Amino acid sequence: MPEDELSRSSHSNPGKNLVNGIKTNPASNSPKSSLSVPMGPPVYVDLAYIPNHCSGKNTDPEFFKRVRASYYVVSGNDAANGEPSRAVLDALLEGKSQWGENLQVTLIPTHDTEVTREWYQQTHEKQQELNIMVLASSSTVVMQDESFPACKIEF
């Protein structure tokens, strides 16, 4: 398309297929699949917090394919809202299986939940195959009149 035609078409309908300035796919109503994010190389980090308390609303296998962490923190503790989400924990397995390299990954749940325990037990063999370790809290921090479980992470 010539530059002057491109310019006219973008001015005739400004904001078409844009959500918060990001190009969307009008054929899809799903928030996850409607955002057009350019593909690029994966990002490697030491520690990543799984977004939205490990809710399935906005974390899928693509997150784990693109954000490759040595440690992932799972902070969900609200079963009524699906936090943590079994689908997100399964997405970690699916995403990690496509890395093409067997880097050690440690999952750090901040709460002991039924969902996390069941996922751990039902997928333990797959976790071992993918070199994923689930870190259980084995320490307690006592501060003034409060105590809470804690994990020590060293880099």
UniProtKB/TrEMBL annotation:
Q: Where is the composition biased (Polar residues)?
A: 22-36
- Gene3D superfamilies per the record? Ribonuclease Z/Hydroxyacylglutathione hydrolase-like
Task: Tell me a GO cellular component.
Answer: microtubule
Task: List every stretch annotated Disordered.
Answer: 1-37
Instruction: List, alphabetically, the InterPro entries matched.
Output: MAP1 (IPR026074), RibonucZ/Hydroxyglut_hydro (IPR036866)
A Gene Ontology biological process annotation? Answer: axonogenesis
Q: Name one GO molecular function term.
A: actin binding
Name-wise, this protein is MAP1A protein
- What species was this sequence derived from? Notiomystis cincta
Upper taxonomic classification of the species?
Eukaryota, Metazoa, Chordata, Craniata, Vertebrata
